[in-house]
Write a structure and sequence with these properties.
The protein is an alpha/beta fold and 475 residues long. 38% of the residues lie in helices and 17% in strands. The chain folds into 2 domains: 279 residues, P-loop containing nucleotide triphosphate hydrolases (Rossmann fold, 3-Layer(aba) Sandwich); 167 residues, Nucleotidyltransferase, domain 5 (2-Layer Sandwich), CATH 3.30.420.280. An 8-stranded mixed sheet has the order 3-4-5-2-6-7-1-8, covered by helices on one side. The protein has a 7-stranded mixed sheet with strand order 9-15-12-11-10-13-14. Helix 1 crosses helix 2, helix 2 packs across helix 4 and helix 4 crosses helix 5. The chain is elongated.
């Protein structure tokens, strides 16, 4: 059987129309001729889910995968070019965004270079319009377009496919403001940028950076996203089958995602460089290490009943909103044993408004009794002083004092974490244990840190001399 060059091109076109993954293999030398393409099964997995989105089987897709696995090339470069050419959908309108405009423009430019290449044009002659052909925005003669922007600039245009690649940078993931902004954009901006709310597609691809990042927000609230999650090292207990029947093909604990590119030696080296939290989030797609990060809660001995303590303090972390997604007010009671060890006795918490916060503190202090000291945080400024003076006035007859917070959350938590790691902290069994332990394990990448803050404050107060102030008055 003799194949002509035309036959070979026709076969290639047919294979590309059937498979986005095959199209990427064939087109890779066009955009990156200096780098040898290494294929992995994870590329097929991403391609199959993107194809399902085009076929109407998936309208919301969340992909969590480590950096360096060609996720941006697949989703931001080849997928749009595949739609216009091999898939025969040049009318498609595609919006793409990232946490920085330069990153979105980078992929936009590569996609345009691919489309305008001789290889692509000889197979799929998609023509650009001369008046709309630039690196940030380009349009073809079928009125399909591709626009790139920073996510905050996604205004005006509407798309059939909205692609959000890396909503947050690793450097900004620990900022409450940055995470809240990203989650607000997800809720309030992305849905309004669709041509057709019923059939248009939103695709989010990222590595996990924090429990409260966009992925965490989506998963916690069950917003109907298909979730493709591929960690660098296989964890059988986290493997799930997606709606199109895909399941991670690995079978052994710790089996690598792409050993040809990320060898065991490389992965172990990078673990040390990244540290436990960055490795857990960016490589394993979990906000915190399995074994815990700063805190090692499994090293706490659980006891059945509160022991006799030589001194006890309840530390507080205050919030003043009943919003279920906001920070909570928490009070953690900690005691010092005669042998010098520490015991976590009790935790109370809740998402409460200002009046209920005051009531919770007063009622808890009354139950604790005069033998338990109290430590309240004082925010800087006149408003903070007024708030704490009002609280202290309501606690007349009890030994409570207020002090400003010093240092960041991690610095304040480190002394208690060190004692837990050394095996010097006990935990009284209670229905609050699970949530408390989970927060310790995920700190500082977890959604909440109020119990940690309160426990850190109580532990620090235990290291100080007992207050000799008049009851209910601040010193």
């Amino acid at each position: 059987m003799r194949l002509t060059p035309q036959d070979i091109v026709a076969a290639e076109k047919e294979m590309c129309s059937r498979s986005l993954s095959y199209f990427l293999k064939r087109g890779w030398p066009v955009i990156d001729p200096g780098q040898t393409y290494l294929h992995g099964w994870h590329m097929d997995a991403m391609a199959e889910h993107l194809e399902a989105a085009v076929d109407g089987k998936i309208s919301r897709l969340l992909i969590n995968i480590p950096p360096g696995t060609s996720k941006s090339s697949m989703v931001g470069v080849f997928f749009p070019a595949w739609l216009w050419g091999p898939k025969g959908m040049p009318h498609s309108r595609i919006l793409s965004a990232s946490h920085e405009q330069d990153l979105a423009i980078r992929d936009n430019r590569k996609s345009r270079l691919l489309i305008e290449s001789d290889w692509y044009q000889s197979r799929w002659p998609v023509q650009m319009t001369s008046d709309q052909n630039e690196k940030r925005y380009f349009e073809n003669d079928k009125r399909g377009f591709r626009q790139a922007s920073a996510v905050k600039g996604m205004t005006g245009k509407r798309g059939d496919f909205v692609i959000w690649d890396d909503p947050l940078s690793p450097e900004k993931a620990y900022s409450d403001v940055e995470r809240e902004t990203a989650n607000r954009v997800f809720s309030e901006t992305l849905p309004l940028r669709l041509n057709n709310p019923d059939s248009s597609v939103i695709i989010i691809v990222m590595q996990r950076l924090h429990e409260g990042d966009v992925s965490g927000y989506i998963l916690e609230n069950d917003f109907g996203y298909e979730h493709l999650m591929l960690p660098m090292e296989y964890e059988p207990d986290r493997a799930r089958t997606t709606s199109i029947g895909f399941k991670d093909p690995r079978t052994k604990e710790g089996e690598l995602l792409m050993p040809d590119r990320f060898s065991r030696k490389t992965v172990e080296r990078d673990k040390k460089v990244l540290g436990p939290f960055a490795h857990a989030g960016q490589y394993q797609q979990r906000p915190a290490p399995r074994e815990g990060g700063l805190f090692k809660p499994h090293k706490m001995e659980v006891i059945q009943a509160p022991p006799v303590c030589v001194r006890e303090v309840r530390g507080w972390d205050l919030a003043a909103t009943a919003d279920v997604s906001a920070a909570r007010t928490a009070g953690v009671r900690i005691g010092r044993l005669p042998d010098g060890r520490t015991v976590i006795v009790d935790v109370v918490k809740g998402q409460l408004g200002p009046a209920d916060v005051t009531a919770l503190i007063k009622n808890t202090a009354a139950i604790d009794g005069r033998g338990v000291e109290g430590s309240l945080p004082q925010d800087p400024g006149q408003a903070g002083k007024a708030q704490v003076q009002s609280l202290l006035a309501s606690l007349a007859g009890l030994v409570y004092r207020a002090t400003p917070e010093t240092g960041d959350k991690v610095t304040r938590a480190t002394p208690l974490a060190a004692q837990i790691d050394a095996g010097n902290v006990l935990l009284v069994k209670g229905d609050w244990n699970r949530d408390f332990i989970n927060e310790l394990a995920s700190f500082p990448s977890g959604k909440f840190a109020d119990q940690v803050d309160a426990a850190s404050r109580a532990f620090m107060a235990l290291t100080l001399a007992p207050p000799r102030a008049k009851q209910g008055r601040q010193r």
